[in-house]
From TrEMBL:
Domain of life, source organism: Bacteria
GO molecular function (one): peroxiredoxin activity
Location of the Carboxymuconolactone decarboxylase-like domain: 45-90
Name this polypeptide is given: Carboxymuconolactone decarboxylase family protein
Pfam families, A to Z: CMD
Source organism of this protein record: Thiorhodococcus mannitoliphagus
Length: 186
């Protein structure tokens, strides 16, 4: 059973088209993804989800490839098929040092993973937050600070984790189909 309806660009209200246009302008994409079309029936809801994503991913001081890796890892840990595929694609388009097989190995290897050092500490922190945010310790913060992250940047990392979790619940509960340009990793 399909649990959602899509509102394509041509059938969207003017307010929803404004959201779609902002998405495409900001991301450089030439089409509106399924997750956003599934919200297109409600311009306020589409705008709220898009503004949250835009504000979290496209502002702040952390680089976009790191944010995309965080979303990918959180989505993979939550078993969110749509988000893990989408953000695997985004990571690969932003970090040419990685290949699909690297991300797939990360998902399937458990503790035996091989990520570039640039990602390792943030990924470990994100996984701990996903497992139980109440168990994050001062030492976890200090580990990131020792790696050069400020307290503000650690808050930004947590905001990205939270954003991913929100989208994971939304896309998984609806069982969104993958966009044609996404490759399933789960």
């Amino acid at each position: 059973m399909q649990r959602y309806l899509l509102t394509d660009y041509n059938n969207a209200s003017a307010e929803t088209r404004d959201v779609y246009d902002d998405f495409m302008r900001t991301t450089g994409e030439s089409s509106v993804p399924i997750w956003l079309q599934s919200l297109g029936h409600s311009a306020p809801l589409a705008r709220a989800y898009w503004e949250r994503a835009k504000g979290t991913l496209f502002s702040g001081s952390l680089p976009l490839p790191l944010k995309e890796m965080i979303v990918f890892v959180v989505s993979a840990r939550h078993g969110a098929r749509y988000c893990s595929a989408c953000h695997a694609q985004n990571v690969l388009s932003l970090d040419q040092a990685l290949e699909f097989k690297d991300l797939h190995a990360f998902v399937t290897a458990g503790a035996e993973r091989n990520l570039p050092p640039y990602y390792e500490h943030v990924v470990a922190f994100a996984e701990k937050v996903v497992a139980d945010a109440n168990q994050v310790t001062d030492e976890d913060f200090e580990m990131l600070m020792d790696e050069g992250f400020s307290r503000e940047e650690i808050c930004e990392i947590i905001a990205v984790i939270d954003l991913a979790s929100m989208f994971n619940i939304y896309t998984s509960a609806l069982k969104l189909d993958l966009d044609p340009n996404y490759r399933a990793i789960l």
